[in-house]
Amino acid sequence: MLIQKNAKITIRNNISTLDENLYFYRNDRNINVLFEIFNFNFEFLDGVKEEGNVVNIINPSYSTIRIIKPSGEQIIIPRCPIQDGLVHFYIDSEFINDIDEIGVYQLQITLYGKNMFSEEEESRVTIPPITFEVLEPIFDDSDIDYSEGIVSQEENSVNRKIISDCNVHNSHVSREEIKEGTDLYEWLAGDWITDDRLNSIHYNILKLYNNIEKIDASTINYGINGLATVQDALNTLLSPILEIKFFSTNISTFMEKGIRVNFCNFTWGYSKDTITTQSLRVDGQEIELDGNMARSYRYSTPFDTNKTFTLTAYDGKDTKSSNITIRFCNRVFWGVAIAPTKYDKTFLDSLTYELSDSRKRTITVQANTNQYIYYAVPTSFGTCTFAVGGFIGGFEKVGQYSYTNQYNHIEMYDIYKSENPNLGKTTVVIS
User: Using CA atoms, how far apart are residues 8 and 85, in angstroms rounded to an integer?
Assistant: First the structure.
């Protein structure tokens, strides 16, 4: 059975808001979220500008959905169907089933439609992102089978079989023989659970316990500082090794310069439930956490420059740390084009780009008839060196341009062009 949820998105400038917050719980599945989109002030040449659900007005063919998970993982859901003016977002059984998927998600919709000027290229437009949150249910029921209408447990599995329903095979070995014996049994798949094997485990554990009580702890060299007794040594051996299983944030670790981050959420987890101390620092300055059991924090100090967040934990024996750095970067552009009459914002925006703080990159492009290969980086990155097929050179600097991005950040760019056109499929190494 499919569960359906309707949601209305209203756009004001570059902000999308939902008519009500969206919440799901871990292991929720088979949910179809239907989005209506209102107040998106774009004019479409093949339609009439009017009020209402923009999907009904422009009649797009399909949509794609970008999602950033709380772990920082970036995914794209391609070709989401559009029916009756509604964008369909389907949550399947794998989407929110892991513990590190609890937290705040970012979701952004892109609409695709026919281009009245070109049959070869689709039109596309992207709306500002929204957020939704995945929460943890009050307890985990992932191992429970509801198929018969009542809670039934898988037979013959650990922590599942009711004791009174389990029969132990009698091997007719006396308790005295078991007490005196020192036999160690190798268990094989399909072996009977027998009274002698179970009792042998019991009596050997009891014998070990009694022997431990007789050991003079002062005569033992444990090899680890801070261990004074056998009990301390056993606790150290049996305790899980401290590891930071995950340390994540709900925002991208690469942000475009000019963006101001008003807040971000952090979540983390360890290999053990109890630790001695923990700390969270930002650029070396400690943040006050809600005790050693805290596993999340909301950082609410706005920032627009690089920030490094460091989580440190100590369990009485080991210290572990993990870092998250939020970087504010410029765009680096590359692609192919016929030589333009001038190098400006329109030209740069026509190229492929990614956010980066380095000029170093390896790109592969297809340069067809009269097309040159272009590469543009912030002037502050320094002079680029190009290599094609292992040979240095083949590119020249053809201009500079002061580029203003959508967040009003201004950056001077150096623009490089291949010396020759028509290079076909070419791989370029930039250093």
Answer: 12
> How far does the chain reach from its first CA to its final CA, in angstroms?
55
Phi-psi region of 53 (alpha: psi -120 to 50; beta: other; left: phi over 0): beta
Lookup result for tokens 């439930």: 273
| DSSP letter, residue 146 | -
What is the enclosing helix (H) or strand (E) of 163? none
Q: What is the mean pLDDT of the chain?
A: 81
- Least reliable range by pLDDT among 213-222, 314-323, 411-420: 213-222
The mean per-residue pLDDT over the stretch 140-145 comes to 65
Whole-angstrom distance, CA of residue 180 vs CA of residue 379:
83
Question: What gap in Å lies between CA 137 and CA 267, rounded to an integer?
Answer: 17
Distance between CA 147 and CA 155 in Å, rounded?
15
Q: What residues does 352 pair with on adjacent strands?
A: 334
Helix, strand, coil percentages for the chain (3-state, nearest 5): 15, 45, 45
- Region 367-381 average pLDDT: 95
The 10 Å CB-count burial string (b at 16+, else e) for 120-158 is eeebeeebebbebbbeeeeeeeeeeeeeeeeeeeeeeee
Domains of the chain, by residue range, sit at 3-135, 163-238, 244-327, 331-430
Strand locations in 213-263 (E): 244-249, 254-256
Integer Cα distance of 217 and 230 in angstroms: 6
State yes or no: pLDDT of 246 exceeds 80.
Answer: yes
Do residues 135 and 23 touch, judged by C-beta distance below 8 A?
yes
* pLDDT score for 192: 66
CATH no. of 244-327: 2.60.40
Query: Is 50 exceeded by the pLDDT of residue 50?
Result: no
- Distance of alpha carbon 227 from alpha carbon 221, whole angstroms: 9
Correct CATH for 3-135 of 1.20.1260.10, 2.60.40.3350, 2.160.10.10, 2.40.50.140:
2.60.40.3350
